[in-house]
From TrEMBL:
UniProt subcellular location: Cell membrane
Entry's transmembrane regions: 71-89, 109-128, 148-168, 211-229, 250-275, 295-316, 328-352, 382-400, 412-435, 455-480, 507-526, 532-552
Family: Belongs to the BCCT transporter (TC 2.A.15) family.
Any one Gene Ontology cellular component term annotated for this protein: plasma membrane
InterPro entries recorded: BCCT_transptr
Identification of the protein by name: BCCT transporter
This protein's record includes keyword Magnesium: no
Residue ranges, annotated region (Disordered): 19-38
Mode of membrane association: Multi-pass membrane protein
Keywords, in A-Z order: Cell membrane, Membrane, Transmembrane, Transmembrane helix, Transport
Amino acid sequence: MSPAQTAFLRLQWRNALSQTSGNNDNEKDQASEGIPAPTGKANLIDTDYVIGQDNIQTNKFGFSVDLHGKVFTVSSLVILLFVIITLALPEQMGPVFNGAKSFLTDNLSWLFLLAANIFVILAVVLIFTPLSRVRIGGMHAKPDFSYAGWFAMLFAAGMGIGLMFYGVSEPITHYGTAITGDSWAPLGGAQGDSAQAQSMAMAATIFHWGLHPWGIYAIVALSLALFSFNKGLPLTMRSIFYPILGERIWGWPGHIIDILAVFATLFGLATSLGLGASQASAGLNYLFDIPNTNVTMVLLIIGITLVALLSVMLGVDKGVQRLSQINMALAFLLLLFVIFVGPTMLIATGFIENMGSYLKNLPALSMPFGREDTNFVHGWTAFYWAWWISWSPFVGMFIARVSRGRTVREFLIAVLLVPTVVSVIWMTAFGDTAISQLTSGFEGVKDAALELQLFVMLGQLPLTEITSFVGIILVMVFFITSSDSGSLVIDSITAGGKVDAPKPQRVFWALIEGAIAIALLLGGGLTALQAAVITTGLPFTIVLLAACYAIIQGLRSEPRY
C-alpha cells in the first residue's frame, strides 16, 4: 500500500470518528460532516494523528463534553480571569486599556501596516503564478455552491456590524478632519477644499474596508482550506504550520497557535458586539427615548446573547442560515433605499470617483514608515488591521468551508474583489449621502456621537422611523449571527478540530463572548474595545506572517493543471 493510500485510509478513519462522535441522537442530527477526502490527485500529509485523540470526552450531569483539554483549559481560564478582573475593577482597568492601546499604536503601528501589505501582495502575486492552478479539495473537486451563492456568502462572512457602525461615521469624520486639516486628517487632508476633502475621506474609508482586510482573510482562508481539504489535516489554525513544525503541531507549539486563535477571535468578536450594542442603544434612544446608558447596553448584550443561544441550539441550518438570509435581505433593501431616496446621481458617479481616489491614494495610505498623519495611522488604520486580523480565524474558517472545489486563482480573485466592490458601494451610498447633507448645510450628522450618526443621517430621508428601526434590527441580527458563528468556530478550535462537538460547549463560548463585550464596555468603552483587539491582534499578526511561508510550501507540493 502506497503512503498516499495509507494517508487516505487514515483520513477516512479520522472522518468516521469525527462524524460519529455525537453523544445523543439530537446532537447527531445537527452534526456537521467531517472533512471530505480529496477528489482526484492531492498531496495528503501522512500523519498518525487522529482528530480528537487528545480530547476529554465525558457525559456528566446531563452535559456532554468533547474538548481538547489543554487548549480549552488555558483559553477558558485566562479569559474568565480577564472578565472577572475587568468587571470587578472597571475604574482601575480603564487606564490600563488606554495605556496599552497608546503604547501599541504609538510603537507598533508600522508592524500592522507592513504585515497587511505583505498579505495583500502575497494574495495578488499568487494569482499570477502557476501555484494558482491548484484546486482546493483535489484536482477533480467540484464547487459545493454556485457563483451567486458563493459570492453572497463571501461578503456576508466578513462584514456586518462594522458596516452599520462605520458606514456613515467614518466618511463624515474623515471629511471633517480633512477639510480643516487637523492632526487626524488622512495624509494631511485638504484644508478648505471641499471636493478634495470628500475624495480623501472616501479613499481613506475604502482603504479600511477594501483590499487589505480581504487580503488578510484570503490568506487565512486559503491556508485553512489547503491544509484541510488537500492535506487531510483538521480544520484548525495549527494545521497551517505543518510545513514549518511537522508533527510538533500536535504538541505545545500547536496548542499555543490555537490558543492565540481563540483569544484573537473572541476579542475581535467582542469588539464588534460592543460596537453593535452601543449603536443599538443609541438608536433606541433616538427613536424611543430609551436611556442610552451602560445599563441599556448591558441589557441589550444579555438579551441578544440569549437569542444567539437559541440560534445555537437550533443549529446552523435552522439558526444561523435563516437569520443570515433575513439580514442580508434587509441590508440590501436599506442600501437600495439610501441609493434611490438619497442623492442618487452623486452616489452613482461617486462610486467610480471614490474607487479611483482609493486606487490613487492606496500606496500613500499603505506606507508603514515616515508618515506624518500619525493620529490617523494610530487611531484608525492600526486598529482596523488588528481588528481584521482578530477576525481572520473566524472568517477564514467560514470562507474555507464554502470554497472547496475552486482553484486558487478563482478563490483569490473572488475573495479580494467581490467583497471589496460591495463595500465600496455601501460606503459610497451612506458616506456620500452624509457628506452631501453636511455640505448642504445640515450639521446634525457631524455633531452627533459616532454610534448615532447613521440614525441622524437616515432622519433626513423619508420614512425615518421605519429605516432607523430596520437599522437597529440589522445591528442586532448581525450581533446574533456573529456570536453564533463565532461560537461554532471557537468551539471547533477548542475541540481539537472537530466540527460536531456537543452543543453545551457552543453555549459556553456564546456566553463568554457576551461577557467579554460587557466587561470591555464597562471597563473603558470604545477605548477598551480597541485596546483589547490590538493587544490580541499583535501576537496573531506574527502567527499569520509565518503562515505566509507555510502556504507557499503547501501549494508547491500540490499537483496542478
